Amino acid sequence: MSIETNRRSFLSLAAAGGAGIALSGLAGRASAAASSPASAESFGPVRQIRAGLLDVGYVDLGPRDGPPVMLFHGWPYDIHSYEQVAPRLAAQGFRVIVPHLRGYGSTRFLSESTLRSGQQTALAADTIALMDALGIRKAIMAGCDWGARNACVVSALWPERCQALVSVSGFLVLNPATVLTPLQPADEFSWWYQYYFATERGRIGYEKNLKAFARFIWRQASPNWHFDDATFERSVQSLVNPDQVAIVIHNYRWRVGAAEGDPQYDALEARLAKVQSVALPSITLEGDANGAPHPAPAAYASRFTGRYEHRNLSGGIGHNLPQEAPEAFAQAIADVSRW
What we know:
The chain is of the alpha/beta class. The chain has helices spanning 8-13, 85-91, 120-134, 146-157, 185-190, 192-197, 200-208, 210-221, 229-236, 244-255, 266-272, 297-300, 321-324, 326-337; strands at 30-36, 46-51, 54-61, 68-72, 95-99, 108-109, 139-143, 162-168, 282-287, 308-313.
């Protein structure tokens, strides 16, 4: 789940930056065949393409000449967060790309020697590499949880590659300079798993109880979402990835200063820390039953300096908003595309 979004000091100091490290050589080549038929019929198949450091598994729906939309999932979820969003957008003429992030699904590292970093700029660089490999120059960025953070980071670092932004729970860019600033005790308690993962016991516990852990988080984050076993099993299979544990543990340890980042992203993190806002057309969304820690919309409204709108969703909508309210999420993308 997303983290530090309710951190008072973070909300006042977090920054996102407008450029990046050289990404030469990050573009890749697509395989001719789909790699997985496991998705819902209207959502699959999952294809593979070499992009940057990864062989990325992704869904590609809609006309190839349609306005591109990049949809990013979170943890412990997968591309099926968008199994109802993507077909809706494709039917409206958008080209919709839904990638498995590093450590999920059929996405694999090309080299065993690559550091399994889960830090925010690593995922953002993966996104630019994927766009380059697919020949997509500019796209709408949208996401939830880790995916919302990724959409925000990409929009901040490479605004020239982004048409607009849709983010659940606001401006989620992390500022490493604030990681040692403590929250109030009740707020710290809400991030229990973050501190669990900071221990070796937590790493072993996640590896040993991965599926049970995911189910528990789903229920905690979306207390009113009555998902069935089939829905859960379809997504949780994506966590059975050789790099899942390493990526998740590094992600959460890096956030609290318990792990070093990958040096190749130092320049990106430094530039990210200098930008205070996103000037793109943006819509943020929040469900009325989000059980994950999240900031009040007023806390991040100033981070969006272009045309901006926040939408509160009622009806027991939890943290995995695209899967729980796909029509509203798809509508936000369609609306912001016309701004």
